[in-house]
Amino acid sequence: MDPQRKRQVRLVVALSVAVLLSVALIYTSFTASTQAKEPTELLTAAPGTSYEMTGRVVPDSVERQGSGISFEVEDRDGEGRSLPVTYTGTVPDPFRGGREIILTGAMQGGTFVGEPDTLVTKCPSKFTTKDDG
Amino acid sequence: MASLGSVLLAGAFLAAVVAAAFALIGRAGDRRWLDRSRRTVYLFFALLTACVAIVEVAFVTDDFSFHLVQQHSSIETPSFYKFAAMWSSQEGSLLLWAWVLSIAASAALYATRNRLREVLPWATAVMMGIGAFFTGLMLFAPDVNPFATLSPVPADGVGLNPLLQHPSMMIHPPMLYSGYVATTIPFAFAIGALVSRRLNAEWIRSTRRFALIGWAFLGLGLLLGARWSYTELGWGGYWAWDPVENAALMPWLLNTAFLHSIMVQEKRGMLKVWNVCLVVGTFSLALLGTFLVRSGVLQSIHAFGDSTVGPYILGLIAVVMIGSAALIVSRLDDLRSEKRIDSLISREAVFLVNNLLLVGLTAIVFWGTFFPLISELFTGEKASLAAPWFDRYTTPLAILLVLFTGIGPLLAWRRVSWASAKRIFVVPLAAAAVVAVALLLFTDAAESLWALALFVFAAFALVGLGQEFWKGAAARQRLSGGSFLGALVAVVSRNRRRYGGYIVHAGIAVLLIGIAASSSFQTNRDVTLRPGESAVVGGRTVTYLRPTVAVDAQKLTFGGDVRVEEDGKQTALLHPSRDYFRPTGMGLGTIGSFFAGEATSEVGLDAGFTADFWTAMQPNLTAVQRRVRAADKGFAACVRGEPGTPEECKAVAALMRAAAADPRLEATALEQISRLQDATARRIARTYLADDAPATFRVIVDPLVTWMWVGGLIALAGALIALWPGRGRRRGSPVRTEADALKEAKYREIRDAELDHAAGKLSDEDYAILDAELRKEAVEILDEVKSG
Predict the structure, then answer these.
(1) Which pLDDT value is given to residue B727?
(2) Is A35-121 in CATH node 3.10.290.10?
């Protein structure tokens, strides 16, 4: 094979690999992703489906229950009804009432049951816009 | 002081604009205008240094008339954190960005003051354009002026978040910023080279150091962030594919690719389009990292306020990307490769593969990070991707990368004959085979095939790199005698770039071994124990011996003594605990406010060469909190003058009555009460010891995780060796011109080939051909110098 042709073949092979990989990437990302929802949307969501919930913990709602905790979350804008949540597992340091959290889980009988070790709490204090001090 | 700061900041903005203007006036290469422009850049640096100094003095002297100081510091904040509190704020971090840029720009212009006369004007204009952008942002955008003042001046500040009060958290942001900012320099010079059509390797030679410095800083920043997460955050992980982590990882990956591919351009005149694309990509991603932290676009553990500067930075990214793309397209003719790849078994071919892997990794991380936005665009629903998705794609690529980390250094430039390839590869391949068999026979590594592959490839790479050092030293010893160790030191110190790079490779291989082992073979359990009870986790017996309590003015600490035993022998006595901080700046608090404030975990860690034993504790404080609530009720009654619980209640009630009559007594009364509350808090906290309360322990046995930190440090040491100035630049040596630099680079290539030949990497025939080629090229350069 002359070098010119050889280079073309290589290019085609490399491009096809890249295309295949990106198709796989795109396909799996749509199937493997978890939908993000706010607490008020989850109140009416189908039980059993896994969602990523983002919301704000209602102050003074956190209670210890056996090895886990229960609390309530509301939408980040603070409107609408709040959603009861139970969670078992280690709680990140910054977690407390008033904080924004991200938690993966599913609805079970009107309560959002979080999967262990999926609770993420946003770090406070860095780059907040409003002066709430 | 604040008004002086504002004036200086405005001066810095003007200096940036003027420096850019002077540079553009001198764009034809006019020496005088370029000198003026460079001096104005130094002025830009001096003015920003003064701004930073003013802010720091305000922090250290508790000048709460500065809005910035009031929001991020307080009288009780420890001095060290006062000093570092500047960059925990939005405006302070922007000031830091601009200041680091002024340092880097001044250094770059000083280093190139006698060279690159066509490229410099445009490069200066780009650097100062970006400098003007960031200083202008602080001056004109709402809410981000570091010199904003408060009137009347508050008595105390809000204080710094306790979670951030950790030494590595204080060094982490400046490291990341320095890493981001350093990428500006290669970018600016690339744009300069494109505009002036001076697209040989000279702009690369002049800015390679900055790219490497940026790489090292960003790497150190990532490592510190991981370490902080591991030891401070109480969940025991070091990486979570969080958007902000990814935002710092992406420019680092692209910068790694850039550092490799520029060598191909330097030595072979190839990959020119690729290199300018990489440098534009790296800089855009660095800006994107700066932007993401401030935008609120993505959900992340790092709080992003929906800040005011996000849209401006996004605008800058758009300008950078569109402008650069247009410029590259218009210069495609000048960017043609001078040569083609001779052979697929050559170092440049391996570099090409490694570049594809690194760019592929970056693309995967980018897609995953921005997937919430992509999915919202296509499906209307925000959806996100979790760690398993990232792991699935990045793992195979990282494993291949380790393999090439080993192959690259073994191959010579241009071509390697089969015979010499076989000779070079036999030892590393044999070592990899031995390691594979040993792992299969003696460990459980076969449970995770990915990890097994990584271990074997890493063994191949490490032995191959060791062989490089050994052969280089042996060749040196043959030539000049002396001890083997002396020869090793000599050969490394004479070829710092090469051997520094090899050390980085070894460090990355060790680091990836640590990541693979700790993520594939980790034991992770939550156990709830009462004092005296034990549990077995990962073959170790964990006993909760007794609870502990400590109290100080800032916090209540509930902890536990934990004994760890392996095979009946005690291996560690750990003391995990949880601190509850009283929020500051709230005036008269309650005891319960301790539990409404921040809580942080102090991890119990027994680090070891083979495995870390890690534990964090979550005390059950139900009983304590009940007592606290009762005590607070008593106090409240007391202050109202009703019969309350503490014995001193009568005195307090009397004081409060007196204060009602005479306002001057109020301060004394409040102080008295808070002292009483403190004493009560202490007493109640101590009752925890008698509660026999259960505590939940998260216990992790993490194999080889220490290798990760050690590997990272080895890689950084390697980068430092590669950066260390060579002896080529003696003081007082004649002015270095572009032609000198070209000549020197070619001589270095000839020496490199010699070394490769002596070390057995190049066969005699290959060396003869290569040497002749290089000498011919050197003569061409010398001719050019004479005629020019």
Answers:
(1) 58
(2) no
Complex ipTM: 0.78
Classified as helix, coil or strand, A102 is: strand
- HEC string of B581-646 equals ECCCCCCCCCCCHHHHCCEEEECEEECCCCEEEEEEEEECCHHHHHHHHHHHHHHHHHHHCCCCCC
Residue B286 — pLDDT band, cuts 50, 70, 90? Answer: very high
| Single pTM value for the model | 0.88
Q: Which residue has the higher pLDDT, B104 or A88?
A: B104
C-alpha distance from A110 to closest chain B C-alpha (Å): 22
The 10 Å CB-count burial string (b at 16+, else e) for B534-555 is ebebbebbbbbeebebebeebb
Contacts of A29 in chain B (CB under 8 A): 367-368, 371, 374-375, 385, 389
Residue whose structure tokens are 């080279």: B193
Find, in chain B, the residue whose alpha carbon is nearest to that of A96.
B596
Coil, strand or helix at B541: strand
pLDDT attached to residue B173: 83
Confidence of residue B730 (pLDDT cuts 50, 70, 90): very low
Q: Any CB–CB contact under 8 A between B346 and chain A?
A: no
Chain B positions touching A104 (Cβ under 8 A) are 386
Contact A33 B383 (CB under 8 A): yes
| pLDDT 10s digits, B369-406 | 888 888 888 887 777 888 888 998 899 999 999 999 99
* In chain A, domain spans: 1-33, 35-121
Interface test with A, best of B160, B385, B577, B595 (most A CBs within 10 A): B385
